[in-house]
Amino acid sequence: MDGLDEQPTLREKAYESFTRHLLARDVRPGQFVSQRRLVELTGLTLGAIRELIPRLEAEGLIKTVPQRGLQIAHIDLNLIREAFQLRVFLEKEAVALFTRSASDETIASLLKRHRDIAEAINSGNNSHELELHAQAVDWGMHDAFIDALGNTIISNVYRVNSIKMRLISQERFRIDGRVGPVMGEHLKVLEAIERRSPEDAVGALVAHINHARDRALRL
């Protein structure tokens, strides 16, 4: 029984370790890696890595290329289009529900974080630290919308797509130099939520996501 209890934990450790290294760019999109390299990277056993690979393949984060080995997900135009399309489908419903159900305190907190960043930008703060903070606030807002659904299946799908979105962001565009415009787009969404207008919130959110998609496709 002890062994059965430990196995899921070990598999989760392997998954979390891999995705952490992937987002830290210790392995890069399109790169070929061996199972031994993944062992070295994660510090886990070869058995754990072999159990991990089918999950990564199913989620599209890695694929087996005959005679070449394991390849990290490659960022191409098809992946960008599909990832953004899925994001729109999921977040439209999420933001509509969030607009109706979020507490005034939650909305006020999100607005304050964004307005504080916007004010810092207007005051001439263009520091890397502010950009990192803005990126975290950016992801946090979108995560809050999905969390409001309270749907584990959707959350799991969104989590995998979010990893791909962050890889796209790293490869194609970053928030660097665009903190002001991005915060402005977010504030339009949040101000519509504050008015409790699902239609306006959805419209502003879709426009925001489509702007990001178009920038990624142009690059």
UniProtKB/TrEMBL annotation:
A GO molecular function held by the record: DNA binding
Q: Where is the signal peptide?
A: none
Extract the InterPro entries matched here.
GntR_C, TF_FadR/GntR_C, Tscrpt_reg_HTH_GntR, WH-like_DNA-bd_sf, WH_DNA-bd_sf
Domain (HTH gntR-type) spans: 8-75
Q: What keywords does the record list, in alphabetical order?
A: DNA-binding, Transcription, Transcription regulation
What protein does this entry describe? DNA-binding GntR family transcriptional regulator
Organism, scientific name: Rhizobium sullae (Rhizobium hedysari)
